[in-house]
Design goal:
Elements (H helix, E strand, L loop, with lengths): L2 H7 L40 H13 L4 E5 L2 H9 L7 E5 L4 H13 L3 E5 L15 E7 L11 H10 L3 E5 L4 H4 L9 E5 L13 E5 L2 H14 L5 H11 L2 H21 L3 E5 L9 H7 L6 E6 L2 H10 L4 E2 L9 E3 L11 H6 L6 E5 L5 H12 L1
Parallel strand pairs: 2-3, 2-4, 4-5, 5-6, 10-11
Antiparallel strand pairs: 1-7, 6-7, 8-9, 9-12, 11-12
Helix pairs in contact: 2-8, 3-4, 11-13
The structure holds pyridoxal-5'-phosphate.
Pyridoxal-5'-phosphate binds next to helix 3 and helix 4.
Amino acid sequence: MNINTLCIHGSEDKSHCTGSVSVPIYQTATYVHPAVGQSTGYDYSRVQNPTREQLEITLAKLENGVDAMAFSSGMAAVTAMMELFKIGDHIIASDDLYGGTHRLFCSISEKNGISFDFVNTSEASKIAEHIRPETKAIFIETPTNPLMKVSDIAAISAIAKQHGLFLIVDNTFLTPYFQNPIDLGADIVVHSGTKYLAGHNDTLAGFLVTRTAEISEKLRYIYKTTGACLAPFDSWLVMRGIKTLAVRMEKQQENAIRLANWLCQHPKVRSVYYVGLPTHPDFEVSLKQSRGFGAMISFKVDSEQTAIQLLQRVKLVLYAESLGGVESLITYPMLQTHADIPKEEREAKGIDETLLRLSVGLEHIDDIIADLEQALA
Ligand SMILES: *Cc1c(COP(=O)(O)O)cnc(C)c1O
């Protein structure tokens, strides 16, 4: 089935008794047992909930996985995933990760005895140098946040397979609409469902999607034990969001391409980081592994003063954390998502006081451009 259709008809609930087209919200914590030792298949909503289950079925299909688990946030999903590892294990991760993931790895996971090498994974050949006997996994984000570096998933998967490592891919930025990491060899796909999947800046959610039943079994055990499951109403909101994923992604990308080209021409803009620009260093890799470029753009302006002025003057584009929703949002990575990364390390990566990150929404492109034009004037 085509992905556009799966977004709308991916769930399997046919609500036999009522004919309800929308999956009902099963707002229940627990379920009555038909008889001693018997179960309806639903015992307690931390473990199974029919609304969440339909969302999980949809996501597993969209990502070509065997199973998907819906969490209360993206960070809850990554935290649960880290329970696969134990004291002494080593993980190689992209050096341009989402700030929250970087914070989790460097504070909580390291405290738990797991060590990391942060590597520029867009140079796949450099990864093997960091593999040690204790290495268990490679964790990548592609494109990265906020510098939009692209990693070659199939090439990294070949390295992971050769050394018996898990490959984990955070697919939040492109979504299954544009990219399917499992098809390229990933073992686990991570999502912040808060972003494009839910798509309306109205709820938090996270996912882990698995390639094999074996990994799924381990993660399901962690899931029911640690308990950061997505609530029934939030599950319904994300399912509702996914119904329009295809049209939103297409239109937001169309807006992003227009905007990236407009930014490239602007005299106060010094550089534009957008995967869909043919001048992007990883453009060829993107064409090979993805069906699109998404709608995230970072750019550098001519000074800190211009950056601050822009943030203070925007009216339509909202100065707010997060991304992927219908509303265009602008963030200042240095002060927001990457505030916890030490200044020197952050600047060495290119995240400085002139860098801004834009999540291009669904407003009319002329209105978005007019707003940025007046803010940059
Ligand atoms: C937002 C985000 C996360 C964390 O997800 P939450 O839903 O905010 O907990 C993880 N990875 C990426 C790439 C993100 O953008």
